[in-house]
Design goal:
The complex is a heterodimer of chains A (259) and B (430).
Chain A lengths: L4 E7 L5 H7 L5 H7 E6 L11 E7 L5 H12 L1 E7 L1 H5 L11 H8 L23 E3 L6 H13 L10 H7 L5 H5 L15 H4 L16 H10 L4 H7 L8 H13 L1
Chain B lengths: L3 E5 L9 E8 L2 E9 L6 H4 L8 H6 L6 H15 L6 H32 L4 H7 L1 H22 L8 E2 L2 E2 L5 H26 L12 E5 L10 E4 L4 E2 L4 H4 E5 L6 E5 L6 E2 L1 H8 L5 H9 L12 H22 L15 E9 L2 E9 L5 E7 L1 H17 L7 H13 L21
Parallel strand pairs in B: 6-11
Antiparallel strand pairs in B: 1-2, 2-3, 4-5, 6-7, 7-8, 9-10, 12-13, 13-14
Helix pairs in contact in B: 3-4, 4-6, 4-11, 5-6, 6-7, 7-11, 12-13
Amino acid sequence: MARKHKLAVWKFASCDGCQLSLLSCEDQLLTLANEIEIAYFREASSAVIKGPYALSLVEGSITTKEDAERIQKIRKVSRSLVTIGACATAGGIQALRNFGNVAEFLSIVYARPEYISTLETSTAIAAHVKVDFELRGCPINKEQLVDVITAFIRGRLPTVPPHSVCLDCKRKGIICVMVARGVPCMGPVTHTGCGVLCPKYARGCYGCFGPKENPNTESLADWFVRLGTAHSDVAREFRNFNSDAPAFRAESERQEKLS
Amino acid sequence: MTDRTIKVDYLARVEGEGAMYVRIKNGQVADVKLKIFEPPRFFEAFLRGRSYLEAPDITARICGICPVAYQMSAVHAMEDALGISIVGPIRALRRLIYCGEWIESHALHVFMLHAPDYLGYPDAIRMAKDHPKLVQQGLDLKKLGNEIISLLAGRAIHPINVRVGGFYRVPTRPELAPLHEHLKRGSDMCREIVRWTRTLPIRDYARNYEFVALRHATEYPMNEGRIVSNRGLDITAREYDAHFEEEQVAHSNALHSVIKGRGAYLTGPLARFNLNFDRLPDSVQQVARDVGLAGTCANPFESIIVRSLEMLYAFEEAIRIIEAYEPPETPAVACEPYASTGYACTEAPRGTLYHRYSIDEKGIIRDARIVPPTSQNQKMIENDLRDYVAPRIEMPSDQLRSECEQVIRNYDPCISCATHFLKLEVEREP
């Protein structure tokens, strides 16, 4: 039997939800484990098999000096490196610190802030090392995760489309929450992948998957304002789990200036 | 053998990044540390300036394993601030989604994180080679928990349908019908699992804990109740800050939650079970008695049995809720913000989760405080380690290390949750 590809799962600043998605592939997990060797996955296993690894899945963002060094070492032992989830691809919710004052944040949460060592920013993995593929989402879609792993094993490209949630929503024939009810919806500028959850549940998309390719954020933001949303509220729409993704960052800063 | 250090630089099969350090000197336990190197993410800081309506979706991101717990504590705290009380079907649906999370989270721990300790495997995947049916059952149960959450709220991790006042959309009765069938299968499977947990080689060990959990007038606690203990504590969530505090200990770099004037306590399945055994339906009480647990479990290694019993309860409760369900007239109760402070505790799978928010007249959050169960259990985990190691000083290092890891794993610690952690030296290799 050919030797199985080694898979490693690494964690940085995150909620664990994206690596949990791998364990949530209840129907595929055991089959997958026959195809690949889960060589490093601390959340699931106390066994550690040495690298190099054919595929490293990286969850979380870089927020400490130690982690900035650790990701370099991980890159060196990984043939392919795929980032999974908004923390790893855009800095995550904790990137809200990038818009504030970390010293002040520290004093709010910790009684002895001088003991904390943290960077001023929370940044995406791609800001530190070469990334072979970015899988979006807060959290990622587990079907897409299986596709990405399979793609890397088989040597093909992942089939993860880069268009908007809005397009898939139209395809599904869901009544538009923004047109029909005037509810602000991030669907037109948000990367698809969630399966169009929010409009299906009668709420506007809140951008978990970050910007789609070439988003017209300015136009959408103007529509939010026309619907009666204050600029400060529009800024917050772009400042969630993907706040540091360039397109969303630019728009939230524009709205902040207008408010 | 008298002077040595037992350490694990990166704990496995726990959620998040932690390490363990035990130092033995002159035949005594000199130092014990549960070290946390999970980087801080500052939720309480960046919640300031956000709308009260955003709290459930933002705080969900604290934990991918128990996002529902964060959403529940957040919405209850905001509703407490605004003087809103949720009753009827919306309340029942919240309980239903919480059942889903208990099942999903407990199944993950029982089968994938905890069981390998008892059966001697590094993980569930390798365990599946010898115990395929067992691991498959675990995955099936976990999937059923996820199915409840996904049906009610779109997806199991960071669900999208929970809001202050209720939901964005509520299910119809026919939409819940297929779930009902699946859950019956799950509850049958769970009875078998409880009996199986009793057959595991569980150590004879017990500790004299102060247990802390919610207690409700009629129900096994999830979304509401008074905070009680077996040593006389009996307060509301509004009184939490007067009775609990987080203290900084010289020997440890982590903040420890303690009961003022008394010290460490235990929250989680063992505490809930011991303090609320009489609130379990007869059917679940009977299964508990059959495996020798009648509401007095002081052995943390038996928490795998208690989690299985709670899983069984969650299945039965979910079935009961679905059978009684009639959709509410509106999916959410309307609310208008005013300047106020709200408090709430709910029962996350790992224990009591406290949220407190102050909001202004526009509903903007001015202050937030979150105390996750793992922060609360930290000090007790260290106490357990000290107590466990003391009579085992002469045990070979590898064995002692492995058993100490199990002592920690008994708590199902969720390190990602615990936002109140301080800097620690990091020792690890990629």
